[in-house]
Structures are given as structure tokens and as C-alpha cells.
Prior knowledge:
Helix content: 40-55%
Distance between the termini: 24 Å
Radius of gyration: 20 Å
Strand content: under 5%
Number of strands: 2
Number of domains: 2
Number of helices: 12
CATH topology of the largest domain: Serine Threonine Protein Phosphatase 5, Tetratricopeptide repeat
Largest sheet: 2 strands, antiparallel
Strand order of the largest sheet: 1-2
Shape: globular
CATH class of the largest domain: Mainly Alpha
Amino acid sequence: MTFARAPAPFDPAARTASPTVAPRPAIATPPGEPIRVAAADQEARPVPSTARAVAPAPGSSATAASTPAPVPALKIADAAPDFVARANELMTHQVPRLAQHAERSVARVLFAAGRSEHVRDDETIRASAVAISRGPVDPLAGMTLRPQDAERLNDAARAEYARRGGTPEALMLQVRAFGADPLDAEIAGNLAFLLLRQRPAQPEAARQLALHALTLRGARNPEGRIEDWATLAIASALSGRERDARNAFLVTLALAPNLERQCKAALDVVALYGERLRAPVEAMLQSAQASARGQQSALCESPPHWVASSGAAAPR
């Protein structure tokens, strides 16, 4: 699925049934790029559900919850953890390490896209994307996940975004969803997207999450979600990594099922995020013109219409 509105990962038709959750104070992230969320007077209420333990830690047992000795919270399947606190821990200590490893794998895909003369038809890019792997030592292995809670909170964040855009409430719901299940690609990718929709945007935290999300794939998205490649492109541009931004946009061009829709989405990116996105998007449109379909599309014209008409004004 191509991204929309730079890129909107939320489906407006998503289920609107969701728990009422009040935001909690902002969580912390690596120095220099904190996640900033408006605080509220009320505590966030845990969402009840039956938890499912995924890959229990060595030595754990079904009777661990009844043992009087202290047990780490992440290993207790029948106790509701504080999802915000867990997301805080993940963003501060784990996501930077996960992103650092992912960056090495992703760099090979970006390199393949950057040197390709015909991105749209280059299977090397797709093959490189499929080959992205997780680290040999996964710091999240053995974590107890709560996928039902995560799905419910993710749906609530989607519904909030569909109603009111990237509000602090939508962000906090997504933060809690990530705390419930940080191994879900859609949840991690949606959180990265929402960090870009804040004012001001939080590009470095979004970039790290997008890198992490690209290592989480399934049968439906073996190359990674195209939304996450687009988020990586935007976050890279906003954090001063123009070459990575250009090449990540080229990857979206290689993976997009609909060329014209991808060109339109790229034009919208410039309208939303401004001048720092102009050069990477123009490079993508120039590459699109190398394909027969791109040559026939007004949306994929190169130079883009704002260059041809005024030379300076951003598209409206």
C-alpha cells in the first residue's frame, strides 16, 4: 500500500471502537530527541485483556506468578504492565541499539537504489530489501507481548488520527500500543509516523523507529512496509541526511504497486514538510520519468510543476 499524506499509515475506515485512555506524561528517548507529549492530570488506565507470552525467558515456568520472590514485570503474563513505562524503557535503551544494527542492513538497500539507473524495474532493490535481518542478539527476545492490548490501542490511535490528526492523544495511544507489542511492524511504524506529525516534528526518534520497523516483516510485506520506507525518507531529510532521504524515496518507487499514486504522495510530502524534502522528492520524480508509465503521468513529471512554473514556490 502506498503512503498518503506523507505517508498516512492510518486507514480512515479503521474500527472506531476503542478504550478511553487519558495521556500520561511524556516518555523519554535518547538524549537530543525526546518524545514530547502533552501531560494530563489523569493516570492512563490499563486496558484489560488476556496476555500472551512470546518466547519466554529461559528458566521461566507456568507457576512463576505464584512464587513470592520478585519476578521482572516483563515476564509476568497475567499482570498488566505499565505500557508507557515499558515504551520509555524501550525507546531509551533498546530502540537505539536495534536501529544501529538495522541501519547496516538498510544501507545496502539504499546503496542499491542510489546506484540504479532504472529503479522501477530493478529487482536488486527488492531482493536487498527482503534480505534485511534482525541482529544476532535480539534484546527483545523473551519479552512478554500483549498483542490484543496493542491492537486495541493501535486501533484507538488510528481512529483518533482519522478524527483529529496527529494530536498528543493519538501519539500517547500509539506509545502505549508500542509498549504492549514492540515487535509489530505496523505499530512501530505508526508511532514513527506520528512523531513526524507533531509540532515540532521529532525526526531522529522517528528515524530510529522506522529502521526498527523495517526489520519486522511477515509474509504480506517481505520487503518491509512501503509506509516505513517513506517515513525513513522523510525523517532522514528532516534530520539532515539528504542522501539517505533520496535513496529511501527511490526504494518506495521500486516497491510501489501504483506509480502515479506514489508520485502524488511524494508531492504531498513537500507540501507538508517543506524545503528539506524538495531535493529528495525531485530525485524520485526524475527516476520515475525513466519508466514508460512515468513518462505518461503528469503527476510524475520531471522537473515537477512547481519548478517549471515558478522555480521557487512549493506545491499547494
